[in-house]
Amino acid sequence: MFAYTGLNTSQVNELRDKYGIYMTADGRISIAGLNTKNLDYISDAFHQVTKDQGIWLIEIDKIMLAYVLYFEDHESNL
Q1: φ and ψ of 2, to 5 deg
Q2: Rounded to the nearest 10 degrees, what angle do helices 39-50 and 58-74 cross at?
Q3: Cα–Cα nearest to 70, from 34, 42, 41
Q4: Is the dihedral of CA 18, 21, 22, 28 positive or negative?
Q5: How far is CA 69 from the centre of its chain?
Q6: Which has the higher per-residue pLDDT, 14 or 73?
Q7: Strand-strand pairing, 2-4 and 28-30
Q8: Contact 5/23 with Cβ under 8 angstroms?
Q9: Cα 67–Cα 22–Cα 45 angle in degrees, nearest 5
């Protein structure tokens, strides 16, 4: 499952080059790759590439939070 982040190509490239976070050039990211072990790192990286541009990624934050909550509830079943 993919989510659209709203990031532009420059931000996507910065995430890839500086943080090793990969997504499509138009800003779609696979939420299946998110988990409780990498969510803080990814969230911090998103903040770093958007903080000076007045962009707040509310939708992706909601998606990430929902995924983590689901994952934590179902982790014992994996």
Answers
A1: -115, 150
A2: 180
A3: 34
A4: negative
A5: 15
A6: 14
A7: antiparallel
A8: yes
A9: 70
72 and 36 Cβ atoms separated by less than 8 Å: yes
The answer to whether 70 and 34 are in contact (CB under 8 A) is: no
Q: Are 59 and 46 in contact (CB under 8 A)?
A: no
Look at phi and psi of residue 75 and say left if phi exceeds 0, alpha if psi is from -120 to 50, else beta: alpha
| Alpha helices in the chain, H assignment, sequence order | 9-19, 39-50, 58-74
CB atoms within 10 A of CB 43: 16
Q: What pLDDT digit, counting tens, does each position of 9-44 carry? A: 999 999 999 999 999 999 998 888 888 888 889 988
Structure tokens at 51: 């903080």
pTM of the predicted protein model: 0.68
Structure tokens at 55: 């962009």
Long-range pairs for 50-53 at CB < 8 Å and ≥24 separation? 50/7, 50/11
